[in-house]
Amino acid sequence: MVEEKIGIVEHFFNKVSVAAIKITNGELKIGDTIHIVGAHTDFTQRIDSMEINRNPVETVKVGDDVGIKVKDRVREHDVVYKIPEE
């Protein structure tokens, strides 16, 4: 199973535990599983909610800046991978 690089973390909002992610490849949708990796970060999670400019969205594509609620702390420049569905 090959993970596909999908984006980069640009910012982390600590109080609400939301990662601002720049989508650089492919697309993401609600229900997809992502893997976030960095120097101090390494976890996978299912996407339950995404927002662009505080508006809920179902799907994001290349060029979008999206906020995704994350279960753990992430850091700027962490890499976001999409785990393919089986």
Number of helices: 0
Largest sheet: 8 strands, antiparallel
| Strand residue percentage | over 45%
Total domain count: 1
Assign the CATH architecture.
Beta Barrel
CATH superfamily: Translation factors
What overall form do the CA principal axes indicate? Answer: globular
Assign the CATH class: Mainly Beta
Per DSSP E runs of 2 or more residues, the count of β-strands stands at: 10
Q: Outline of this structure?
A:
This protein has 86 residues and is an all-beta fold.
Description:
This protein is an all-beta fold. The protein has a single domain, classed as Translation factors (Elongation Factor Tu (Ef-tu), domain 3, Beta Barrel), CATH 2.40.30.10. The protein contains no helices and ten strands. It has strands spanning 4-13, 18-23, 27-29, 33-37, 42-46, 50-52, 55-56, 59-61, 65-69, 79-83. It has an eight-stranded antiparallel β-sheet, with no helix packed on it. A two-stranded antiparallel ribbon has the order 3-8. The radius of gyration is 11 Å and the shape is globular. The model has no long low-confidence stretch (mean pLDDT 96).
Topology:
Layout: E1 4-13, E2 18-23, E3 27-29, E4 33-37, E5 42-46, E6 50-52, E7 55-56, E8 59-61, E9 65-69, E10 79-83
Antiparallel strand pairs: 1-2, 1-10, 2-9, 3-8, 4-5, 4-10, 6-7, 6-9
